[in-house]
Write a structure and sequence with these properties.
Elements: H1 11-36, H2 42-71, H3 84-114, H4 136-171, H5 175-180, H6 194-222, E1 236-248, E2 251-257, E3 260-267, E4 272-280, E5 284-286, H7 290-294, E6 306-316, E7 319-328, E8 331-344, E9 347-357, E10 376-386
Antiparallel strand pairs: 1-2, 1-10, 2-5, 3-4, 4-6, 6-7, 7-8, 8-9, 9-10
Helix pairs in contact: 1-2, 2-3, 3-4, 3-6, 4-6
The protein binds protoporphyrin IX containing FE (2 copies).
Length: 387
């Protein structure tokens, strides 16, 4: 029998149930394995994530197809309509399962599409999603939601399986056989009615709570560790960005430092001056690997919280050059930063770029070749300062 009846699940519903159950269970395991596997064995980690994302997209497709099918099917009535609490709890859990089978992969997918240069989905259709911009903030928000929703899904699956086992082992009432063998159980009269609507409402509130909690948790976790005091300066920086670009798995990925200060002296008449910039390294973000970048193998922000750039400014043709040193991870090396600058009414706009080699500063030493992380790091600075 292909279709459901009011007392039994048809073969298509049962196929969808067990296919989603298998793919989702495998992918919960794969998510934890990928997330917890060491960055040192990066090739394996990337492969685990690629498998996780690919299975996740499959789970999403199956869930959509399953829900479309279910919408046009009669719903088998509860086998024990008189056990009202049990029927209600089962209905809440079923709605939690339906909700998370869509929301868990969707949030993971949006997180993936908002970043670049990390483990790809193993398919030829591209890695982006329409309407999803490349945005570190969006990716972080989605990562937090994806993780907390994944835990919610685990809880719902746990309750659901416990319920199924209770029916099979204690009640011995044929509820499990409805889903395994398509047997008929219960009577048509056991309609769930309002129970299902209230259960839906409760599940929706629970989801809203989980999403809200994940964003609160994120705000607490990402509050910057002691931000820098603004430096006293002849030219006061009013706005600016300190970004960088590095290739990850061959794709350029942009990162930035949100917390830095600069004290700048500059004489317009001679076109000379000096600059001292302090960078709070733990304010770094880099796509989905911001935490790893702060770790011991990369910037090691616990050991070296700040970097220091000091330089003399000189004119070079129509433009300028800052010649000085960068002290990063206790290693001080010469750096030349060419930049352009326009000064109008006491407001200076500058923009400059330079390229560093991460190996010079012992960043990512365990990545001896460029397969995972490129050697050159393009640094991009722009700022506006007022006298
Ligand atoms: C080994 C694991 C599982 C077992 C033993 C199991 C068992 C069952 C059984 C017996 C039913 C029918 C309940 C009834 O007739 O009232 C059912 C329904 C359902 N299961 Fe599972 N299940 C498992 C895993 C999963 C997983 C992983 C998901 C999804 C994430 C899932 C989602 C659902 C949903 C949404 C329903 C309600 C279907 C409906 O009537 O609309 N199940 N399950
Ligand atoms: C039903 C489908 C899915 C399930 C059950 C699932 C489950 C999980 C789990 C359990 C974790 C680990 C959470 C933790 O360690 O706290 C995880 C992490 C992750 N998943 Fe999924 N996931 C699914 C689909 C997807 C999809 C479709 C994508 C992307 C296309 C994705 C991308 C990710 C990423 C990037 C992480 C790491 C989170 C981070 O950035 O910190 N997932 N997932």
């Amino acid at each position: 029998m292909k279709h459901n009846s009011s007392t039994a699940y048809g073969s298509v519903s049962r196929f969808f149930h067990w296919a989603t159950a298998v793919v989702i269970s495998l992918n919960i395991a794969m998510g934890f394995i990928a997330h917890r596997s060491s960055m040192e064995a990066v090739d394996a980690k990337v492969l685990y994530f690629s498998i996780h994302k690919t299975l996740g997209v499959l789970a999403f497709t199956l869930a959509l197809a399953r829900i479309c099918w279910t919408l046009f099917q009669p719903h088998p009535a509860p086998v024990h309509p008189q056990r009202r609490l049990e029927v209600f709890v089962a209905a809440v859990v079923h709605w939690m399962l339906y909700g998370s089978m869509l929301l868990v992969p969707l949030t993971g997918w949006i997180e993936h599409a908002a970043t670049s240069g990390y483990a790809p989905i193993l398919w030829p259709f591209g890695q982006d999603l329409p309407l999803v911009p490349k945005s570190d903030e969006l990716a972080q928000r989605m990562a937090a939601t994806h993780q907390l929703l994944a835990w919610t899904l685990c809880l719902a699956v746990g309750l659901h399986v416990a319920g199924a086992l209770k029916h099979a082992l204690i009640d011995r009432d044929g509820v499990l056989q409805r889903m395994t063998r398509g047997k008929s159980a219960g009577t048509e009269s056991g309609r769930a009615g309002w129970t299902s609507a209230v259960a839906f409402g409760l599940a929706a509130v629970a989801f809203a709570g989980v999403v809200f909690a994940s964003q609160i948790g994120l705000r607490a976790a990402s509050a910057p560790a002691a931000s820098l005091q603004a430096a006293t300066s002849e030219w006061k920086v009013t706005e600016g960005t300190l970004g960088f670009k590095v290739k990850q798995m061959g794709t350029p990925v942009s990162g930035s430092f949100s917390d830095w200060t600069a004290s700048i002296a500059f004489d317009e008449a001679t076109g000379t001056g000096n600059v001292k910039a302090v960078i709070n390294l733990s304010s770094v973000t880099l796509g989905s690997v911001s935490d790893q970048v702060k770790g011991a193998g990369f910037l090691d922000t616990a050991q070296y919280p700040q970097a220091l750039f000091t330089a003399k400014i000189q004119t070079e043709g129509k433009n300028f050059l800052a010649v000085g040193t960068l002290n990063l991870k206790g290693i001080e090396l010469p750096v030349r930063l060419p930049f352009t600058m326009t000064i109008k009414d006491g407001v200076a706009d500058m923009a400059g770029q330079t390229v560093l080699d991460r190996r010079d500063f012992k960043v990512g030493e365990s990545y001896a070749d460029e397969k995972t992380v490129g050697f050159p790091v393009e640094v991009d600075i722009s700022l506006r300062a007022k006298r």
